[in-house]
Design goal:
The protein has 184 residues and is mainly α. The protein contains 6 helices and no strands. The protein has helices at residues 9-12, 21-61, 68-82, 84-89, 105-140, 153-179. It is elongated.
Length: 184
Amino acid sequence: MMHGPIADQAEVSSTATGSSPVAALERALSFCNNVIVVFAALALIAACVILSYSVLGRALFHSANYWQDEAAVFLLVGATFMTSAYVQQQRGHIGIEAFVGLLSPMANRIRLWLVDVASLLFCAFFAWKSWTLAHEAWVDGQVSNSMWSPPLAIPYGLMAAGMTLLCVQILLQIVIPLSGAARR
């Protein structure tokens, strides 16, 4: 088990520079990710406040909570999926390091590229299914089973948008080493 930086992480975190379309897309996605992280932090704080209000309201005033749990879940789902591209940009997802020390730097780059391709395929399928789910919820006017009945298109749309951003981030990580773009 390793608690420091992964040996091959420095090679992967390099980014394209210049005025190429790949570099422009990477800068735009990075800016978008940074903005989303701020809003996700606010969403997490709001979820904490809502759940605390719910607990206090039930304990002190014996009031029902019609909307609090569901609102908190919607905020948490949005924060989780929308920040997944930021986490991927930082290479913050959990990785298995068993082969890092055994393989040469070139073999590690190939391994990481293949993992990114497999991740992109899975995430693209997940994003596609999320968009179909969000579309069905929107068209059919699906709402949750609670008394509050918020539209399910909200969490499904956040899930789909977050997975799409994650796919774009992974695609950039696949394309940059192949494009021969200048790196920082």
